[in-house]
């Protein structure tokens, strides 16, 4: 009897609370990062057997089919994390509270965790698709694209590169699912909306570069006005993992100065002369700002214009002062990655629009004209359409850095 009364009181309290909730607002947040951290706290991927982890990667990259016996326990262990992930992915913004003021010493512990969470979530979507739950699988892949977009909101190039990996797992899942020809109209419409709204290349690649440029220029400005510019330079070497780090915050020894001078190709006398060193800082700052400004503009330009120019720019950067080279991100392949992301976005969007057009009952699609498919990011020209008895294929007219055209197939 006592237990029954306690349960009745609990139900009454909940009912009363529910009634109050109709008239009183509860605290909420639109920041997805809080939900992702709750998901991260429930990750157990570090304990995965190496073979199981490899199997997860093979599944989410499309190299192998879902293995229920081997991989179901992984999903079951992460149901709490996945629940938080799906809730967070619906949030409009994401701010992990990065301390950009720390410059190149800024810590970003969420990136490895986000990649691990995304791997489990993409595997869950593959499991759902394998079990015939296409709508739920599509929802999972779209949430994965949302996570990628949220990580890219860090506005740092390394975050965008992690986001690119997460993007590839989920756009690949959507490609395979749409390619079966079994996605229903509602799923196709949701995929179309998500890909149409995504920026060219999936993310704002130029913004990530802009943040790094601002951080480095502020660092240069700080060294120029430093009371001991040689010590500031030595301390920078420590944050970059370069020789000559020494004891941060203390005047550099002659040995440390000699080591730094050797790395930068200047004399010890110049390092010991504050006025001369500040002048060098100003020259290096201007050199860095010019190169990064050009790179930023290229990553904001149409994707077919940037890779060759980025490669040429990196050759020029390789001839700059060693300090400038240390600060420059290795962007030779970034333009190519941006092209591939855009090709994936445009190619899957093309398949979706072909399928939707076919289902309108106007006959088979024989041309891509009128489908508003973005241009081939390798050439700027339209994608090509090829048909056979078994498939409809959307081809990029250009080729990626490995010399391959990207092909997107839809079963007829």
How would you describe this protein?
The chain has 17 helices and three strands. The protein is globular, with a radius of gyration of 26 Å. The protein has a three-stranded antiparallel beta sheet. The protein is mostly helical. Helix 2 packs across helix 6 and helix 6 (110-130) packs antiparallel against helix 7.
Q: Which structural class should the secondary elements be placed in?
A: mainly alpha
Give the CA-CA distance, first to last residue: 65 Å
Total helices: the number is: 17
Shape: globular
Strand content: under 5%
- What's the β-strand tally? 3
Uncertain segments are: 1-14, 239-246
Strand order of the largest sheet: 1-2-3
Helix content: 55-70%
String of helices and strands: HHHHHHHHHHHHHHHHHEEE
Topology, please?
Elements: H1 2-21, H2 32-40, H3 50-60, H4 68-77, H5 79-89, H6 110-130, H7 134-152, H8 157-179, H9 185-197, H10 205-224, H11 229-239, H12 254-264, H13 268-272, H14 274-300, H15 306-317, H16 322-327, H17 334-359, E1 384-387, E2 391-395, E3 407-411
Antiparallel strand pairs: 1-2, 2-3
Helix pairs in contact: 2-5, 2-6, 3-6, 4-6, 5-7, 6-7, 6-8, 7-8, 7-9, 8-10, 8-17, 9-17, 10-14, 14-15, 15-17
């Amino acid at each position: 009897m006592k237990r029954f009364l306690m349960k009745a009181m609990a139900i009454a309290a909940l009912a009363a609370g529910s009634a109050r909730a109709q008239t009183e607002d509860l605290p909420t947040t639109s920041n997805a990062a809080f939900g992702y951290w709750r998901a991260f706290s429930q990750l157990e991927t570090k304990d995965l057997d190496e073979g199981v982890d490899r199997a997860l990667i093979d599944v989410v990259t499309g190299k192998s089919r879902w293995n229920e016996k081997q991989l179901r326990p992984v999903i079951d262990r992460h149901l709490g994390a996945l629940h938080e992930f799906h809730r967070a992915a619906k949030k409009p913004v994401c701010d992990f509270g990065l301390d950009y003021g720390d410059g190149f010493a800024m810590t970003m512990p969420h990136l490895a965790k986000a990649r691990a969470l995304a791997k489990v979530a993409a595997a869950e979507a593959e499991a759902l698709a394998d079990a015939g739950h296409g709508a739920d699988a599509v929802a999972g892949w779209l949430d994965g694209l949302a996570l990628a977009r949220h990580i890219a909101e860090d506005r740092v190039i390394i975050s965008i590169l992690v986001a690119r990996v997460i993007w590839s797992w989920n756009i690949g899942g959507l490609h395979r699912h749409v390619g079966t020809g079994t996605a229903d109209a509602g799923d196709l419409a949701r995929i179309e909306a998500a890909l149409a709204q995504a920026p060219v290349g999936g993310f704002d690649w130029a913004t990530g570069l802009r943040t790094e440029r601002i951080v480095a220029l502020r660092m240069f400005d700080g060294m120029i006005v430093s009371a001991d510019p040689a010590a500031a330079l030595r301390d920078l070497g420590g944050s970059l993992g370069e020789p000559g780090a020494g004891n941060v915050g203390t005047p550099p020894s002659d040995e440390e100065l000699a080591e730094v001078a050797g790395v930068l190709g200047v004399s010890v006398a110049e390092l010991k002369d504050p006025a001369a060193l500040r002048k060098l800082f100003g020259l290096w700052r201007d050199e860095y700002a010019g190169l990064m400004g050009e790179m930023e503009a290229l990553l904001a330009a149409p994707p077919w214009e940037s890779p060759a120019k980025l490669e040429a720019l990196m050759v020029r950067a390789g001839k700059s002062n060693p300090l400038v080279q240390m600060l420059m991100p290795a962007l030779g392949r970034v333009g190519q990655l941006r092209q591939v992301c855009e090709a994936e976005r445009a190619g899957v969007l093309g398949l979706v629009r072909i399928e939707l057009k076919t289902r309108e009952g106007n006959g088979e699609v024989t041309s891509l004209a009128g489908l508003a498919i973005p241009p081939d990011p390798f050439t700027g020209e339209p994608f090509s359409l090829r048909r056979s008895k078994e498939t409809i294929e959307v081809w990029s007219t250009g080729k990626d850095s490995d010399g391959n055209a990207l092909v997107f197939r839809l079963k007829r």
